[in-house]
Amino acid sequence: MARPPSPPDYRLLVKVSRLYYEQKLTQQEIARRLHLSRPKVSRLLQQAEEEGIVQIKIVLPPGAHHTDLEARLEQTFGLLEAVVVEVDPALDQLGASHQIGTAAAEYLQRTIEEGDTIGLAWGVSLNGMVSALDPLDVRNTHVVQ
């Protein structure tokens, strides 16, 4: 006959949670300090969340309020990453294209890797992207139309 599960050790759950979230120790460091296995520490952190001891809250800073829409686009269309750009409604088409181009430049600079081939067309937003790019030193990268 299987043993019934033991009640949670709230003291240990709080201790592990504080070490991890407040003192920023790694799971391995906590395991060594408390003489536990690293997988046990991972399970305790998960249990602390399930018990409501740890509650994770994500606070959206200004300019990051479209992440829900980005996540829906990624899921709906099977994308690795979507970027939604909020454009100032007071801007004309050229200004809006510049804002979109700036976001595209930031994305390209963050994601470009050696050996990539970048396909470009032409347009005002793309011109805004090129204008916003900082010089990049990425070897063996090709740009094609």
Describe this structure in words.
The protein has 145 residues and is mainly α. Helix content is 50%, strand content 4%. The chain is built from 6 helices and 2 strands; from the N terminus they run αααααβαβ. The chain has helices at 10-22, 27-34, 38-50, 67-77, 93-111, 124-132, and strands at 117-119, 142-144. It has a two-stranded parallel ribbon. Strand 1 (117-119), helix 6 and strand 2 form a beta-alpha-beta unit. Helix 1 (10-22) packs across helix 3 (38-50). The protein is elongated, with a radius of gyration of 24 Å. It starts with 9 loop residues before the first helix and ends with a strand. The model has no long low-confidence stretch (mean pLDDT 91).
What is the averaged pLDDT score? Answer: 91
Q: Care to count the β-strands?
A: 2
Helical content class: 40-55%
Percent strand = under 5%
Termini Cα gap: 70 Å
**Shape annotation:** elongated
What descriptive keywords fit this protein?
mainly alpha; single chain; two-stranded parallel sheet; elongated; 145 residues
Topology record:
Layout: H1 10-22, H2 27-34, H3 38-50, H4 67-77, H5 93-111, E1 117-119, H6 124-132, E2 142-144
Parallel strand pairs: 1-2
Helix pairs in contact: 1-3, 2-3, 5-6
Summarize the structure.
By secondary structure, the chain is mainly α. The chain has helices at residues 10-22, 27-34, 38-50, 67-77, 93-111, 124-132, and strands at residues 117-119, 142-144.
